[in-house]
Amino acid sequence: MNSRKYILFALLLSSTMVCAQQRKAKPIARKNVRNAATANPMNARQQENFNAMLPNTQSIFVVDSTIVDKNRVVETIPLSPKYGKFVSYNSFFDTDTQPNQYVFINGFANKCYYTEVAGKDSVQHLYTRNKLGDGWGEPHRISEIDSKLKHISYPFLSSDGQTLYVSGIADDGLGKRDIYVAKYNADEGTYFEPENIGLPFNSHEDDFIYVESDAERFAWFATTRRQPEGKACVYTFAMPEQRTNYNADEMSESRLKSLASLIRIRDTWPTPEIRERAQKELNAIKEEANTRVAATDKVNFVVNDDVVYTDIKSFRSDATRQMYYEVMRLQNDSKNKQRTLNTLREKYHNTADNNRTALTRDILQLEQQLDEARQQLKKLEAQLRTAENKLIKK
Question: Stretch 59-74: mean pLDDT, rounded?
Fold first, then answer.
């Protein structure tokens, strides 16, 4: 009797252990399948492109990131109308042929950029048009860009009027769409060949928009990396005065790859305090965007003792309106330089004496740049008042 109980107990214990092993094995099998699917998302050529880009990964300060529906990315970016706006292609052309495409209209509303499928080859081409009176002129194909890129979308012209960002697929990319930049060649009236802007902006997933607000020193780009189907992450980063890359010789390859992939945006922060200040500035921009009512038309510019403009339409010509936007850009640039200078001075007082030499050099250089920016601003404001007063007297 006792031996029978022992046998039954042994069988029960054996069955329990087998079931437990099976329960443990299932998640391990799923994990292995998931790892196998993502172990090498790039093909050999794309991996080679990634390895070539990695040592030149740009050092950026990511202030914030927001996950949104992929088709609502444009709505999420608080771009001031003075830099331009994105308009649905179908709305702009009064059609229903391209529901997922956008037309970008620049800040002066005298140029637009868009893509559309044309010809029997059904290839998507990039076009621009100039404003003529109340309408738009004939389309001009930017063949020097779309001859290299496929599936182009989200064209964005920066405020300098010379730098065009687009997303598309090319042989030097990392998978799906990457973000590219092309400079305007004023001598030839064409664009130079577009260049991949590299890491960390691009990935093996879909990277499809890049927008700059250069006076406020913020920029945005969107990507589907590490996002579920139908979602995208919009990254906001602080635009540097000049591009710098991470020093690949001073960190491990795994660390560099993590920064190149933006695994943790906290790793990009100079300090938590600087990030907190930048976040407050960004929140102010978002709040302004949320409450903006024709903000591009509201100004405050003293023309003379008797005339103060409070509406952008008050300026008598496109040239003086453009001068006003440049005045605003210089004002914001001076404010940003002053904030950076204050940060450097604070850092100088809190650092050891042997580390102050480099800071002293940076402070003196920035003080000179700030003085030059203020002088340029003062000169431009005077020129704008002179030009506008002449138009008023006519």
Answer: 96
